[in-house]
């Protein structure tokens, strides 16, 4: 039987180290819809409709977690929101946005 219902969006987040108490709590709260293991980053980016980068390492530049090559392999029309742009950005393709120019496209994905 084929369902006509749209598939639910997938999300990606890696706010806590894999296996930590907070990561387990997030896994329980979101019932597997949100991934918290850093080693799943590539697979999750490739599957996600929306990826949000919220990397913050106080006092240093945010690490680059999403390369241009990985962004190029993301689903066309997927969205990457990089909250860490003012800390150096966690995506190689991130740049500051303005109200006049809030989004841009990289390899078919919206940033």
Q: Would you write up a description of this structure?
A:
This protein has 111 residues and is an alpha/beta fold. It has one domain (11-110): Rossmann fold (3-Layer(aba) Sandwich), CATH 3.40.50. Helix content is 20%, strand content 14%. It has 3 helices and 6 strands; from the N terminus they run βαβαβαβββ. The protein has a 4-stranded parallel β-sheet with strand order 2-1-3-4, covered by helices on one side. A two-stranded antiparallel ribbon has the order 5-6. Strand 1 (11-12), helix 1 (21-29) and strand 2 (34-35) form a beta-alpha-beta unit. The protein is globular and about 35 Å long.
Give short descriptive properties of this protein:
111 residues, two-stranded antiparallel sheet, Rossmann fold, alpha/beta
Cα-to-Cα separation, first versus last residue = 36 Å
How would the global form be characterised? globular
Tell me the number of helical segments per DSSP (H or I, 4 or more residues long): 3
Range of strand content = 5-15%
Mean pLDDT: 76
CATH class: Alpha Beta
Whole-number count of domains: 1
CATH 4th-level superfamily: NAD(P)-binding Rossmann-like Domain
Task: Count all strands and give the number.
Answer: 6
Unreliable segments (pLDDT under 50, ≥5 consecutive)? 12-20
Q: Could you give the order of strands across the largest sheet?
A: 2-1-3-4
Note the run of SSEs as H and E.
Answer: EHEHEHEEE
Structural class: alpha/beta
Give a short account of the largest sheet.
4 strands, parallel
User: What is the CATH topology assignment?
Assistant: Rossmann fold
Query: Under the CATH scheme, which architecture would be assigned?
Result: 3-Layer(aba) Sandwich
| Alpha-carbon Rg, integer | 15 Å
